Amino acid sequence: MPINCAPAQGESTLAKRALITGITGQDGSYLAELLLSEGYDVYGVVRRASTENYERIEHLRGQITLLQADLLDQSSLVQAIRESNPTELYNLAAQSFVPTSWAQPVLTAEFTAIGVTKVLEAMRAVNPEIRFYQASSSEMYGKVLEVPQSEDTPFYPRSPYGVAKVYGHYITVNYRESYNLHASSGILFNHESPRRGLEFVTRKVTDGVSRIKLGLATELRMGNLDSQRDWGFAGDYVKAMWLMLQQDTPDDYVVATGETHTVKELVQLAFDRVGLDWEKYVVIDPRFIRPAEVDLLIGQPAKANKVLGWVPETSFQTLVNMMVDADMDRLSARK
Ligand code: NDP
Ligand code: GDP
Questions:
Q1: Which end of the chain is more exposed for a tag (fewer CB within 10 A), N or C?
Q2: Is 211 a pocket residue for ligand 2 (Cβ < 6 Å)?
Q3: What is the Å distance from ligand 2's center to 96 Cα?
Q4: Sheet strands (E) in the chain
Q5: Domain spans of the chain?
Q6: Into which CATH architecture does domain 2-191+232-255 fall?
Q7: Does ligand 1 come within 6 angstroms of the Cβ of 72?
Q8: Which residues have CB under 8 Å from 220's CB, separation 6+?
Q9: CA distance 232 to 117
């Protein structure tokens, strides 16, 4: 069904309810916006913290219901699912930053791998009819065995994060096959936005460039400029998640642009946007070089194009400009 399409005559108009784990994250905030615009009652799982970190969903606070739970606490998940009684459950929560997965490998495995089983088990206990989405990752391809990467490309993860995501992917496939669940796994390639965490390379660059332009910093310390990623816009990618759960049959889909760019190209474009020469400011710092690298990612989204009717709508240049402009606005307002 196309995005923003009203139900056809005779089609059910019963209220749809969605529960999102990871609603405070980048994707959670865009997905919540999309689902609200599609008429859903939206519930989100949040963790208790000593200070609230609801910045990305602040603008939605009156329209969504937040429930406290944690991926590691099975009974809290059961309770959140009971309370929200969702028709769709999107499991976006994870320890999602690759370098942290070397510093905290066990925690990463518990959240990003075992956490998926806990959500699936909680869902099965409350209502196995719920449609389930698992946030899988192109990091599962790691040291790529095929170019470009499709749903049939074998995995070769290169970080504890990638390994944990492979588990999360296969447990989703296994529960679909074992228990006949409507469980789908989206193998999403890197997707970014002005709401991306500051530690990821795109946001680090757009924030850093803006700080230099505004006289708040004098250099930008970077790691490997040669690695290549297939970067898209998060706002486009959450549509693919939703479309997967609107299909009669659950399945796995690669979601990507089909284009790849180096980190150096990203840096160049971002500095160009503010009229500065990147080579005067970028310093290579070994602290940002990883123990094992994923050198090249480029996705083959033909199945998502054909079955879901999904296409990326935002070019790489537009994405970088959007992110630089947003960081310039944010930092200028603070000056
Ligand atoms: P973020 O890091 O921005 O958000 C992660 C979310 O998970 C946050 O809401 C965080 O909550 C929550 N979370 C972490 N641990 C727990 C826990 N133990 N219990 C409950 N909630 C928890 O990630 P993104 O939005 O960028 O990504 C969404 C998902 O998609 C992740 O699973 C990520 O691994 C995956 N993915 C992302 C890609 C990308 O390019 N963005 C590419 C492919 C996959 P809190 O705010 O409290 O920390
Ligand atoms: P990832 O693909 O999920 O690991 O997303 P990141 O945005 O963290 O990293 C993308 C690529 O940028 C990786 O190949 C990194 O090695 C590379 N990179 C180069 N310099 C940096 C840096 O300073 N920070 C980060 N996060 N990545 C960097």
A1: C
A2: no
A3: 12
A4: 17-21, 41-46, 64-68, 88-91, 131-137, 183-188, 191-192, 220-222, 228-229, 232-233, 252-255, 261-262, 282-284
A5: 2-191+232-255, 197-229+259-295+315-334
A6: 3-Layer(aba) Sandwich (3.40)
A7: yes
A8: 204, 205, 208, 209, 212, 267, 281, 282, 283
A9: 28
The verdict on whether 139 is a catalytic residue reads yes
Block means of pLDDT (10 residues each) for the chain, 335 residues, are 36 78 98 98 96 96 97 97 98 98 98 98 98 98 98 98 98 98 98 98 98 98 98 98 98 98 98 98 98 97 98 98 98 90
Structure-token pair, residue 103: 């510093």
Q: Is 54 a catalytic residue?
A: no
Gap between the Cα atoms of 319 and 4, Å rounded: 23
Rounded Cα distance between 169 and 318, Å, is 31
Of 137, 185, 193, 210, which is the active-site residue? 137
pTM above 0.90, yes or no: yes
pLDDT, residue 20, reads: 98
Q: Is the CB of 98 under 6 A from ligand 2?
A: yes
Atom of ligand 1 nearest to the CA of 70: 19
Token pair listed for 159: 């970080």
Nearest by Cα to 309 from 220, 230, 245, 243: 243
Handedness of CA 226, 232, 233, 238 (dihedral sign): negative
Q: Please say whether the beta carbons of 40 and 17 come within 8 A.
A: yes
Annotated catalytic residue within 30, 90, 161, 237: 161
Which pLDDT score, from 0 to 100, does residue 15 have? 84
Which among 201, 263, 266, 281 is the best mutation to test ligand 2's pocket, defined by most ligand atoms within 8 Å of the CB? Answer: 201
Q: In testing the pocket of ligand 1, which one of 31, 96, 119 has its CB within 8 Å of the most ligand atoms?
A: 96
- For tokens 């609107």, the residue is 246
Q: Report which ligand 1 atom has the smallest distance to the Cα of 190.
A: 40
According to the model, what pLDDT value does residue 335 have?
73
